[in-house]
Amino acid sequence: MCSAIADPARTENDGTSLLDRIVTEPVRVVETRADREIALFGSEHRAIAGAVPRRRAEFGTVRWCARAALDELGIAAVPILPGERGAPIWPDGVVGAMTHCTGYRAAALARASDVAALGVDAEPNEPLPAGVLGIVASAEEAEALATLPRRGIAWDRVLFSAKESVYKAWFPLARRWLGFEDAVVAVHPDGCFTAAVDPRLAVGVSPDRYDGRWFAGSELVVTAVTVPT
Ligand SMILES: CC(C)(COP(=O)(O)OP(=O)(O)OC[C@H]1O[C@@H](n2cnc3c(N)ncnc32)[C@H](O)[C@@H]1OP(=O)(O)O)[C@@H](O)C(=O)NCCC(=O)NCCS
């Protein structure tokens, strides 16, 4: 069981960023609620060529976050291109994850000597669309959510986000697909969650157990997974 850094029911209006509530040193988090102007590298321009303006905005702004986080790590700006299955390609010696949803973009980065992998995800604090919980959760996972205290938290969305964070941490290590049915996630009301991946799928250095944290603000749910070295 992990220990929560902050009370997950605390209001988000105290100036603390959302992910900073659930991710600590040595991970560097940069997030923004507004889109930012950024000079993309040529290769990044080519990667996003033809995309609709909304996608260009989130692609650029989340890279603005990532470059700021790189700067905090003392690492110069480099192109951050989508690689295998969309996973971002980080500079040597860096691990990280990015997320964007309406009104929010964030990147979390760390030195690979400190952290093996990171996953972060942001979602609206709203119930999943009808039918989605049955796709992303087993009957047992869904039943467990139903026992959690209400408190204005969309628990199904927390579970979904937790699985997205697990996937973002899993993929760079395992380099293989992980389906929603391949990990059993237990969300705890104290701000923590655990994920148990089918051990038959855990290859190489990818662990089959992940400890994560979540926070639910009035508008957004964020989750994070940090895999220790
Ligand atoms: C890839 C995925 C996790 C992205 O999550 P999302 O909520 O749709 O979108 P987010 O905005 O939070 O994250 C998008 C970012 O994730 C990152 N990402 C995409 N594919 C990735 C991968 N294979 N591995 C790690 N990170 C990845 C990218 O940085 C991307 O931003 P970019 O395209 O601007 O570079 C999701 O679309 C997906 O494919 N999920 C299915 C797999 C899954 O979740 N399994 C659950 C296992 S328990």
Automatic annotation (TrEMBL):
One of its GO terms (biological process) is enterobactin biosynthetic process. It comes from the Bacteria. Residues 118-196 form the 4'-phosphopantetheinyl transferase domain. Residues 44-110 form the 4'-phosphopantetheinyl transferase N-terminal domain. InterPro entries: 4-PPantetheinyl_Trfase_dom, 4-PPantetheinyl_Trfase_dom_sf, 4PPT_N, Enbac_synth_compD-like. Its cofactor is Mg(2+). The keyword Metal-binding applies. Coiled coil: none annotated. The keyword Transferase applies. Signal peptide: none annotated. Pfam families: 4PPT_N, ACPS. PANTHER family: ENTEROBACTIN SYNTHASE COMPONENT D. This is 4'-phosphopantetheinyl transferase superfamily protein.
